[in-house]
Protein 1
Amino acid sequence: MIASVGFLLTVTGCGAVDNGESINAVGSSAMQPLVEAAGEQYSSNHLGKFINVQGGGSGTGLSQVQAGAVQIGDSDLFAEEKEGIDSKLLVDHKVAIVGLTPIINKEVGVSDITMENLRKIFTGEITNWKEVGGKDQDVVLINRAAGSGSRHTFEQWVLDGQKVKGAQEQDSTGMVRQIVSTTPGAISYVAFSYVTKDVATLSIDGVKPTEDNVKNNKWVIWSYEHMYTKGEPKGLTKEFLEYMLTDEVQEDIVPQLGYIPVSQMQVERDVEGNIKEISK
Amino acid sequence: MEDIQSKLLKKSKKAKLEQFGKTISFIAILFIVVVVVAIFYFVASKGLATFFKDKVNLFDFLFGKEWNPGSVSDSGKPLVGALPMITGSFIVTLLSAIIATPFAIGAAVFMTEISPKLGTKVLQPVIELLVGIPSVVYGFIGLSVVVPTVRNVFGGSGFGILAGTFVLFVMILPTVTSMTIDALKAVPRHYREASLALGATRWQTIYKVVLRAAVPGILTAVVFGMARAFGEALAIQMVIGNASLMPHNLITPASTLTSVLTMGIGNTVMGTLENNALWSLALLLLLMSLFFNIVTRLIGKKGELK
């Protein structure tokens, strides 16, 4: 009892206690669980410092941080890729990687597909699963909402500039999974962390959607999770962003929530998609 | 003497209280008016920017069939055709109102004319309960029950206007029913008595007198239900499929103004064409609800029982 009180005293005594300092991090709903978990951990380690986390979408995050309304804008996209954002004003902090995988209804009966055929499915050229070795079943496409980060990443790496067929759209990953698991012939795409046994994943050209394959870029459908600040971060914002890259977050929270730590990547990708190996 | 004079000349406590109450109510009303005006101004300024700032043709917007604000057509015009959503919104609204009206009238007649006791004791609370259910619950039931049923019975993927219609039908039914009940109750008692005295049966009285006299009220109820259906976003978004394509039949994915609006707004950046185009949809919705409001006013005025 005395020991624990003493422990508490030393803990609180060591951390500089500020009275109610807080910053806001707003944006990508895909990143929300990660930033929330890290923010809570940070607050419990640093009394009196709060990280308010909100969703709202990558577009919201980028525009709010550009307008100076929030300190951190979460985004799945590079700021350069979003129309209406002046990326020169913003500083990029990559805190994690997220891999995306196509998911299909379990009854379809396909487990591997070529990139070419996957593209044809999403452009509407292939409309029946038997054309790629599955059941005689119509393909039901489910897209994410136009402008969403996941959709952008998927289209960038799978569609190769071709136009996606007009189809159903859903705005949340949970909803997408629910629909794919219950609709015969359905196909969509979600972040790795959202894959459950209700749905089946597809490997592409024999490459399985695993974290290791993302790390060496064999699996190309992935994106960075960015935290943007307007100008160089200062004060609590800087401290929190540094905290995001500590081992505590990178090796604990990040993998737990299904993201991939930046530190474990063997390659680096820029906004144009050029790959550079990271020499270790 | 002086005392009495001053007492008489001074405002009484009651009068002061009344003045105070008046001021408070006036401020409240003023506040509401300011809020409404502000909303109109905000939505209009953003929504009209699509046409004035981004130079989108109004006809391309209202009658274009391709919605993809992020990209441009072959001729270089932005793809902001809202016709698929406008059509989708109107079809689900009309269909759900068409299905809901007979049910609502039937229920209301039963509850006011045939079995008022059972009506007020059991049915009314049940119907009022339906109003209180959050729309996300309707949406989820739609997603897990209605969509698979539509898929099994009618084919397709299940997502589409038909599923949306069923969900909206249940959602607007309580509104239309309770307003129809009010309309039927408002028919003066002596109408019924006169009819019965002339030797009409109960059925004849209901059909030829009560319902006829309540037509304006029933119409108001239906328009009110349609306004609700038109503006519903969450539930419909979960079952309609949200594909900005012209609806060819009732079982392929379609979209409504609300579903496209709520899905897109978080992914766009304020001030860009994509964002403004969504605000234009919002403006359209606002104008439509204004229109529904005016219609109910007109019907109400025309059919006032004197």
Protein 2
Amino acid sequence: MSATSILSSLSKINEKYQMFRTITSDTEVGEAKFLFSAKDNLTSKDMETCSGSKILEGYRPPFDATSIARMREAGGMLVGKTNMDEFGFGTFSTNSAFGVPRNPYGPERSCGGSSGGAACAAAVMEGHVAIGVSTGGSICCPASFCGVYGMVPTYGRVSRYGLLDYGNSLDKIGIISAKASDLGKYIGIMAGSDPKDPTSCMQPDMGARRKLKSVAVPKDATEGVSEDVRTAFINGLETLKSMGVDVATVEMPSLKYAIPAYYVIATSEASTNLARYCGMRYGHQEGDLSLKFDDYFTSFRSQYFGQEAKRRILLGTFTRMVGFRDRYYSKARMVRQSIIEEYRSVLGECDAVLTPTMPFVSPKFSDISKMTPLESYKADILTGPPNIAGMPHASVPCGYDRDGMPIGMQFVADQWDEGVLFSAAEEWEKNFESVRPEVSI
Amino acid sequence: MKIGLEVHVQLPTKSKLFCPCPTTDAPAPNTHVCPVCLGFPGARPMMNGKAIEYGILLAKMLGCTVRDTTWFARKIYFYPDNVKNFQITQYDRPLGEKGMYYLNGKKPIRITRIHIEEDPGKIKRVGDLSSLIDYNRSGIPLAEIVTEPDLSTPAEAREFLGQLIRDIRHTIDIPDDGERSIRCDCNISVGIERCEVKNVTGLKNVERALTYELVRQTKLLKAGGKVVRETRRFDEERGVTISVRKKELEADYGYIDEPDLGIFNVKELAERLKIKESPQNMTLRISKEYGIDERTAKQFVSTSVELAHLFEELAAATDAETARMWTSGAVSAGWKAFEARGGGDTAEVISLVGKFRAGEITDTECNIRIRAFLTGTDTDEVRSGSSDLDSMIGEYLDVNPSVIEDYRKNEKAANRVIGHVMKQTGGACSSADIVDATKRLIEERL
Ligand SMILES: [Zn+2]
């Protein structure tokens, strides 16, 4: 759908797909050079921001996130805030307090998470880019499930000012789009140091694009993945070879520790970030004010945090406590260091590490409801490693299963080497025939 | 009895620790605030480099080891004045560790650590059911200095704190604003178990709170009771400490590294920063280096560091004994007036003492001219005033030669002369002038 017609029918599309939490009331494109949406955990001063949580319902931040501000300065118009798993906690966007986004390739299936709304919007709206956020795979997973391109730059490349934190040492802001060339274009707009986020201030220049010449595939990359995903991935490798890319197999034994380490670090940090939501200063406010403050905080938080948020607060609090910190939190930091070193050594020999993005295609909601938390955490097995290492990575569509559900594969490059991923995605797009979903209102 | 202190000092930065809000007195509650110090979602801390500099200076002053890298941590506890429900402080890598600080230059007090942290807001209770919170102080930079339990009495703790505060002020140029910017947690144990008295303000209250605890714990133990490990607070009005919570209920803060600030490499900064000599160290050094007694050295330094500097310059230009004599005499007598006029270049004093030593002018003349220079008065005026004083003292000494003999044994003998002249002049001469002249004339006759 073209840019102008999108806004007029956005509410209707949204009724069907539930990818937006908030839609701007302005239906005129006007002077805007491009349209963009932002995940609902990025602050926008003219719009509610609630990070998929009831606890923040009605919160209107007094400032724009740097990523949104830079997109606006470049002439972009923010069309809405996309739906997401509460505070980014999830792989299927089923943990939002405000409805569940529907996969454009099959409405009974998930869009992936936690940027599910963003990937859905990118898939169904032409001439639009979505800003997403990834902590452990929240951009590549939904991009893969929704058959679009998603890219996460190096940790620190895009300022996190205005991002409602999940895990501060892991969170990265990136782009999801149906067009590969949008990745470089819009990450370029958002990138650059920002004094309001000290971790963005040490970055080198983005550097020139560099043609992808070689990829390394970890030996156990397809272990435990579904048959359809394996087939599509192997076909993808053949296509890459035909494009003149060298493919090598490598051993990366420490990648399998990424998921446990990721969940320990992410939940430890998340449990401290969520401490501020206590019904006192912003967002939802309600309850018996005659209670003692800790009783008030407890009752409010019990009522307005979702199930998964509570689970991660408890998990993260546990791993930080005296007696457990050394065994979990401190250990996880060491694992993280060894994963970074393993990537470094492999990426010294080739341009990118390649794996499938997700171990399976988007599951049906009926199957998701039967999964245990541990089973759904394991879905991040391939997206976890580059995220915990802070490496730039991109998911590109590489095939479809017999039901027409999209499958993706994921390139991981060395830190600050986004240039090779931009050109890899664009070259890939020329060699891969993608199937756009049919969007009916 | 063992006492350890945790001293909180506000660092004199212009803006808060992690945001550009001013640290000056605010016109009204909640006016010096922004998204960062209000803990708004998405806002994050930006380090005030000046606070790190002040912290390093203090760490050096306390003889602490400053490691090459330092970082911050989140200390998580729920309280309404704590905007993020976590406080950004330092945990496993503080700015300074393992220091040593000498009380009166003699008794070693071990310094456990010094770290930087943000202050929370302030709660004001209004009635039974509501409280008002002012976040103007939220994010004000503090340094926390923790000592080992090396202090032995409440009086010693007070003396230590007084000396420490003077040295801190001097090291990082904190203007003297009473004891407003100093808060203290006091740990005290008479037997085995210790109690902590939180948030005591001011030297006097620290001594009072500790004395109360000393008596309370001693009585309890004598009566066969047990001291429970707990946190208490000090009620200034009633002069008593009150139990706040038992130790076993105390929170586990679940510290993690502050991921938004990263690691600070302070090696070069720490090497570059030089500390000014603390008043305490200056006293000890001057006493040792010039062979003068500690009391006199302390008197110079506590009058003013500039006076002590002038003493050192005089000693360099002449000799230590001449410098001591003139500094405690004419120079000290005129110093207050000199400072009141704005102080300034003291080369004239050095030149005058030099002339005296070379025999170009008499001591009386030198004395008059130094006085005239420091007080900004005409030499003739000083001369006429002092000659009267000199002759009055001379007459008394002529009649009472025993004073000279007694003075040899005990300097206090001069008090007889001073008392006599005070009565005679009836307030027409300043006591400092009389003391100075008396000592000078006695020493001439020794
Ligand atoms: Zn502020």
Protein 3
Amino acid sequence: MKELKILAILIIVIGALYYGVEPYAHSIMEPKTAPADFAFKDLKPIDLSRGVASKGKDLVAQNCVACHSLKSQKIPAPMDKAAAGVSFGVVPPDLSHIASVLNPQFLAHFIKDPTKAALLTHKYKDDHPYPMPAFTQFSDQDLADIVAYLVSIAPKNLSDKQVFMQACQRCHDIKYDKLYAITDHKDLHRYLGSNAPDLSMMIRSLGREKLEVFINDPQKLLHGTAMPRVGLTKKAQEQVINYLEQTGDSKHHQRHRLGIQIMLFFAVMTLLAYFWKQKVWREVH
Amino acid sequence: MTEYWIPKNINFLWAMGVILLTLFTALVVSGIFLLMYYKPDAKLAYDSVNFTIMQEVAFGWLWRHIHATAASMIFVIIYIHMFVAIYYGSYKRGREMIWISGMLLFVIFSAEAFSGYMLPWGQMSYWAASVITGLFGKIPVIGPDLLMWIRGNYVVADATLTRFFMLHVFLLPVVIIMIIGMHFYSLRIPHVNNQEGEVLDFEAEEKKYKEGNKKESKVIPFWPVFLSKDIFVVCAFMVFFFYLVCYHYEFAMDPINFERANSLKTPTHIYPEWYFLWSYEVLRGFFFNGNLGLVVFGIVQIIFFLLPLLDNSPVVKPAHQRKAFQVWFWLLVVDMVVLTIYGKLPPVGNNRYVGLVASLIFLALFFVILPLISRAEKKGA
């Protein structure tokens, strides 16, 4: 009984210490943020229900392919990567898969006013303009048509890695998977004002929960950053995080499987040791 | 081992020494495995840890997690071991050498932990190393030269990493093993203390035991009686330890340290590992005068060594039989918990005053209250 009392006191003191330096201290040091918003409530809804894909196809042909490629539709990029990087600062994305990863409302708003949708108005102004112009001349119907077209050509399912490549690889490296940014680092630095970090270890330095808030709205955790709000759907974002886990914390499952086995082993050893100790001490007490 | 005798009147807190030995062994063994793949080079260190060891080498992650978790847990147990000794008065009357060699171990373990923390070349490793080595630069007269000598460069750089690597994997472990030997050897003459602080005639008790009066004898042999209980405690501890290793390692591996060191980008908050926080808070506590903080910081590094001098009362009893000392003991525990927690919080607003008051209380407990208690006890005794 006495030893249990001592153990209880130990647990209380160490528990207080742990609570103070871990959950409590971190709750004070890290800014509190609202949870991720996959409905993009700050953007006024555009009626996308009556979009006509065939009309959207024409609009894309007239307006988008001057810079963007659509490889699945056999439309190549007008410039090679090096030239595009020098001209724009970042290589424009291929649009074949874009609607598989972006929220449709976000996509429509992005076409209409990219810096506003990406939450980058503080970064890209007249003296340092954003490479994609705002298509304010498009009516809501035009936007609905373009989105309908992009949705019609987008595959329903992409692998985790394909989602990552579509959403992040224009700027970010994953060195540990030998995946490198499409845009040249020098061009990117000029365009962003700083280097885009390698994401190999991001799963361990930020963790799943923070990544979920950060990717959904980078400004919340890193105010003033040049990283855009990408506008990923909940599913696409989960796939990105899964990919980061596969490359940065590939032994995650092994750790969880092995942990329980080692603990069980020592639990059995504890029992055996307890019976042995009882046997030995019976002679002296 | 069967010829070394231990009092029977002890509880599981006396098993901490064997847990420490187990953890130290785990550190050495896991360290040897890590050493096979680690590269002590500022360009390669980060990837050798985070890619080669954590992902490419079979079970490399397990060795690294064991190493990091054991490094943190060893301080939990050292603090328990230390406070058990304070509670039961085991630093007194012939046991001073045990106490002093133990405190030496604590200091060398601190240096060992600090030098090891830098090796993964992560953001917090780098900046913590910068801040702590920077303290040496503030020492009068020799400071700037000393700082250069320690870092091997104007800033924390490859030269610093290489020498910290040598300290961590060779010099300090050898010194630790030697002091462990000294710590054990100094136990042979005054023997282990017991729950009541009772002075035992070990030879007479040993004779009783050997004659078969095992139940009457107040001592037990180290093997198998003492160790049978220790092994039980170690096994139970290991269940908890591997829970931490596999499911809760982040308490020992700060997520920010998975970011590569960047000498151009300071982290928002710089703080040491939890076991240094209380003395770090004393350093910051005197916020209005950095030099004063540094002086007091220097004092608290050695303050526990002085315990046998500051408490020279002849009474050797557990704290619950020395009322004033018992109050002192729990005030010290609470004060150190407060210092530790505020050592991590940003030093702004009222936090600074909490730090100052807690630091002053800490000094008063050692230099004013403890000598007064022992003086009163001497008169009473």
